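Severity: low
Component: inverse-folding endpoint
Summary: output formatting inconsistent between runs
Steps to reproduce: submit the following structure tokens with default settings.
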């Protein structure tokens, strides 16, 4: 029989899509109030990988990445995703989201995102929430899977996540 060990703390990362800078700024303040200081915020990146969100969110859409100084336990991801879902609804206009928050966490070897959508590669973690390993770290770079969203395959996103990984590495060593 194997011995159980508690899992170490992980890095909370919240990638955000938004079409309203005002709503994103308000959401960011709520996230800081709930999860503490941000230790990394990427620049705003024009989101051009798909038009999937355009009808709901409008256009143009931007992506930014937020990482939080305070580390979390992996099992907190369900509550975090449910909280970010409420923020999305709070700032929706006529039932259409203006922000899309996709919380996840980073370990040194993987980057995990939470979602409400089930697929064959996702694992149910409770409360209507699933998680997937979006990227894995091997040979000193982030690597993607066949199911990884096209934007997360980009060198720009992998570079940003590399910077966040370095912050996390220093935190745990």
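Observed output (run 2 of 3):
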């Amino acid at each position: 029989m194997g011995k159980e060990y508690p899992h170490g703390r992980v890095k909370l990362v919240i990638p955000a899509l938004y079409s309203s800078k005002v709503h994103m700024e308000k959401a960011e303040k709520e996230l800081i109030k709930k999860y503490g200081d941000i230790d990394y915020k990427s620049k705003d990146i024009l989101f051009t990988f798909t038009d999937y969100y355009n009808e709901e969110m409008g256009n143009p859409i931007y992506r930014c990445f937020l990482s939080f100084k305070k580390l979390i336990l992996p099992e907190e991801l369900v509550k975090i995703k449910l909280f970010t879902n409420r923020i999305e609804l709070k700032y929706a206009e006529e039932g259409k989201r203006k922000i899309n928050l996709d919380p996840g966490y980073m370990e040194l070897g993987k980057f995990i995102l939470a979602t409400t959508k089930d697929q064959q590669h996702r694992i149910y973690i409770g409360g209507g929430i699933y998680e997937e390993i979006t990227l894995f770290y091997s040979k000193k770079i982030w690597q993607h899977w066949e199911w990884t969203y096209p934007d997360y395959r980009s060198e720009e996103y992998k570079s940003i996540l590399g910077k966040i990984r370095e912050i996390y590495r220093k935190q745990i060593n």
